Amino acid sequence: MGATEEHLVRLGLPPCRWAFPPAERADDSGLVVVGGDLAPETLITAYTQGLFPMPVGRRRRLGWWSPDPRGIIPMDGLRISRSLRRSLRRYDIRVDTAFADTMSRCGDPRRPHGWITPEFIDAYTRLHQMGVAHSIEAWTDDGELVGGLYGVSIGGLFAGESMFHHAPDASKVALVTLVDILGRTPDALLDVQWLTPHLASLGAIEVSRRDYLTRLRRALGSSTPEFDRGS
Question: In sequence order, what are the residues at sequence separation of 6 or more whose Cβ sits closer than 8 angstroms to the Cβ of residue 59?
Answer without folding.
Answer: none
